[in-house]
Batch of 4 targets.
Target 1
Amino acid sequence: DAFGDIAVTVEDPPEADLEGPAARGGMCYQIPVLGDDWATAIKASRRWAPRYFLLGEVRTPTAAAELLHVSLGGPMVLTTIHADGVVSALLSTMRFAAAEVGEDMARLILGNSLKGVLYQELNDGKLAADYLSLSGDQEPVLRQKIRSGALNHIQAEIEVQRARRRQGLKA
């Protein structure tokens, strides 16, 4: 449309000033989280019907549960969480959220809504990255593994996707 896409960040606290118009006509709104009241901040974000939604670092069960809820609502959701790899990021997100919504519901929502996980690490000034994509012919299998909590079986798929990317093939 003529105005461009809308992005919203909900962070505790906002780490960078992203508020305002974007170079290509879009707009970004930033909403700080007061206390651990993620739900109120997310509710306020809905008024703009964002296409992109950044939920700042997941550090609490409440933040993880709200992350899962917003992921089912339409916008592309991005977040960060401290972990030592793709599988541990998934596991941490599930464990945090399970404290609020229960383990089965956390796995179900994550398995239904996840598009991908990007892991980044800086080693001696060099960026190392790993990625799990939930698309392509393995998507139903990966989603079922997440829903069932069989995360230990996901590492093999990460390695297959990594090898395919190195060969220039679609992961």
Target 2
Amino acid sequence: MSTRELSFAEKRDWLRLSRTATVGPVAFRDLLRRYKSAGAALDALPGLVRNTGRAAKLNIPPLEAVEAEMEASENIGAKLLAACEPDYPALLRAADPPPPVISVLGKMDVLHRPCAAIVGSRNASAIGLRFARQIAGELGEAGYTVVSGLARGIDACAHAGAMETGTAAVLGGGVDHIYPKQNTDLYHEMAQRGALVSESPLGHRATARGFPRRNRIISGLSRAVVVIEAAAKSGSLLTAKNALDQGREVLAVPGHPFDARASGCNMLIRDGAVLVRDAKDVIE
């Protein structure tokens, strides 16, 4: 995808098309390839849907609603980035397909450094939390932005450990929605010192259905995903799978075989993930 700045009208069309309920990232990519612009795709979309018999499900947001979102984003200091624009993170743009539009609240520069994701259990052990904080700090000192999902447990400790050097959180809701509430202070600190990222509109509340999309962005931003204390069936393993699909490295911290919180990590290592003992293993 070639990069260029969009005009106000072009970005409005990108946002309007991406906010259309029946248009996900794959459909957005295909429509743009076929019609060359989001505006032309919007013009063609009613006819395309009518031919499939799904016209009743088509809900293109009105211009006023999209312009209101753009103004509201500007008012809180969030930046809307289309996938073709230069400030859009290059590694995420390389995902196939990338989220058409993301919102970023905070410091853009942390997204343009090499990124490494740290994910894991919300119900982590004390030693797992300590290890997440330590390895995040060491990766930050080595020049990496630490990416995670602002969840309780491993995520929160990874963000805290890398706060001094640079960290980014990908949210399940809009960039103005704090979830979970226990991380309110961390959210506000990251808005000032790090970056908050979302592909959801402002005001959108995080739901379980949205977290797989969030996890895809966590891995998409990152060169590697480090998994710490993940159960055999967990969102962290979905993030690891996304990373593999996107051609990124997957690394895992081993745990005791009797600890269910480590079963997913041990499975990843068994299946070929790099075993992590410290930050050096990740950097190498």
Target 3
Amino acid sequence: MLNFPSIFEVHTVHLFGRNFQTESIFTVVASVIIMFVLQFFMKKTKMGMAMRAAALDPVAAKACGINVNVATGMAWGWAACTAALAGVMMGPLYGVFSTLGSQIGTKGFAAAVIGGYGNFVGSIVGGLILGLLETLTSGYISSNYRDIFSYSILLLFLFVRPWGLFNERAIKN
């Protein structure tokens, strides 16, 4: 594991009766801002709507005059930028190692499934549920069982409610 350089000087801030590092606060605030920007971009701009259309049905999107290759490239660009920002924010907190991306990606997939795949708000709620479950498991049982409980709730959702908490479209189909 390699240490990633800190973005800020490491200070401790006392909030709500708890101590937090400035990098942790920055990571949470930056993540919330990025989520709102992505939500706005995907729902309110022509390019965001074109990207969603191209992802949903490339043939129909092409028939409507959308350049599917450009929309796909933009999606990959946004994904790369978001991953780079996540790496810069998470690196100083956890260090950098070869399986960091796969661990974060697996938890992100679990959060998306729990919340409703393809639903921004659902993914955020799924991530909060997963994070709370992991924190409570680590605090009250053992951190060794954190991943077991996370993947157990993922399996529970896959068996009981595979469309997630907030994905209404999947219910209608």
Target 4
Amino acid sequence: MVPQYEKAPTQHHALQVEPRLLSLVVDALPVLIRHSDANGRCTYANRRWLSLTGRRLDEELGDGWADALHPEDRAGCLELLKGACEAQQPVSIEYRLRRHDGAWRWLHEQAAPHGDDDGVLDGLLHAAFDVTDHQVGAERLRQLLDRQQVSFEELRHRAVNRSQLILSLLRLQASEAEDPGVRSALEAAASRVRAVVLADQRLGSVPDGAALKLGDCLQELAEALRPSFEQRAIGLEVSVDDSELPSRVAPPLGLLVNELL
């Protein structure tokens, strides 16, 4: 038998009886809280909000709170909040708000609609957190990653240039070698260097971390090796499916196929 429980009585009357306690709790929360009516006009802001803006409550009421919005964020922020009211759906937004000392602070806000028992919208309840430190840290990380990517591309470019130089020297030495064994060894070394160069060039042509087409990689490698096969009257055909491979696999795979061929 499933036990039956009586529905707990509503406690809404307690909030009406002790509004001062409710105000103390809302002011004590480490959250910036506002309330706006069904038209998006501010009707309340807690002490945390007023401490951040350095303004009085009467200055924040109505459309006054929006005076502290960053000019670049104002239109988009108000549009999203208006849409949340019309659709009666929660919304998550980020915007910059001017602090009492003039500094801009990034806020992450969650706004949720609420209404009466008949479903009539009373307004939005807003809860915001200051995420400026997170934004600053994220921006520094993006800048660091950008610099790292530039350095990586520069190193890759230098490596390809040096490999091309080594490849040219090996080919030159092979063409001048009289001993067939030496010539064959130099040509084999040049072939390995060529495989690495092709892999690096292919990696440099795709976005960082993107997958590579297996067929394209092996076709380029085969084309590079074709002259050495033709010298021996050997035909070479490549048939590869459209599989993709991670970029980190391309260099060792190129060397492996080069050795097999």
